Amino acid sequence: MGFFLMLRDGTLSSLQEGVFRTNCIDCLDRTNVVQSMLAHRNLEIVLKKLNILQQNQHLEEQISFEVLFKNVWADNADVISIQYSGTGALKTDFTRTGKRSRVGLLKDGLNSLQRYYKNNLMDGFRQDAIDLFLGSGKLVSLLTIEKGWRYVTFPSVLLMAIAMFVASVIFPQEYSTESLLYLLFWGSMVIAISLNIFRHGVEFVDKPRLTQG
């Protein structure tokens, strides 16, 4: 693939003969892992060409630089990932250390669950921020945007029903017909409200508020 290098006297020392195409719009997760490895290899070739490294030396031997290089790539992945997915990047344990770990796998699983929740339910403000930054969103007065009555009522009733159901389970010293009826009633309320929230789920999602210009 090579790289472009022009000396101070204007002499053309080498040309870049190709590119490594990554079919991804961002540089995080698996893309970050692959591109960091390519950058590492290319940098080693450049440093040897400039006689900063000897031909028999490798970047892996430069411990302090290795730590800095890997963390810069992983931090870059995290920042980009937080910008539009809401969590840090995946597989950064490999980018930072060169190997996968159980802690890294657990962290990836947690990040994936958070992404699913945020990207499906809480992404409106993030889309607005990107649209506003790119100039593709038309500003509207946020005071004119009103939520339906279900937005506050259903979650409030659901929380109350859950609290009453838990209280009906914990506090009675012995279960009577009356206490069992309380359990049945509040349990039914929890199920009914939950079903209604799912039925009208669009009203509870954080949707983009800027109109497309």
UniProtKB/TrEMBL annotation:
One of its GO terms (biological process) is phosphatidylinositol dephosphorylation. Residues 1-86 form the SAC domain. GO terms for molecular function: phosphatidylinositol-3-phosphate phosphatase activity; phosphatidylinositol-4-phosphate phosphatase activity. It catalyses: a 1,2-diacyl-sn-glycero-3-phospho-(1D-myo-inositol 4-phosphate) + H2O = a 1,2-diacyl-sn-glycero-3-phospho-(1D-myo-inositol) + phosphate; a 1,2-diacyl-sn-glycero-3-phospho-(1D-myo-inositol-3-phosphate) + H2O = a 1,2-diacyl-sn-glycero-3-phospho-(1D-myo-inositol) + phosphate. InterPro entries: SAC_dom (IPR002013). GO terms for cellular component: endoplasmic reticulum. PROSITE patterns: SAC (PS50275). The chain crosses the membrane at residues 151-173, 179-198. Keywords: Membrane, Transmembrane, Transmembrane helix. It comes from the Eukaryota. Its EC number is 3.1.3.64. This is Phosphatidylinositol-3-phosphatase SAC1. It comes from Callosobruchus maculatus (Southern cowpea weevil). The lineage of its organism: Eukaryota, Metazoa, Ecdysozoa, Arthropoda, Hexapoda.
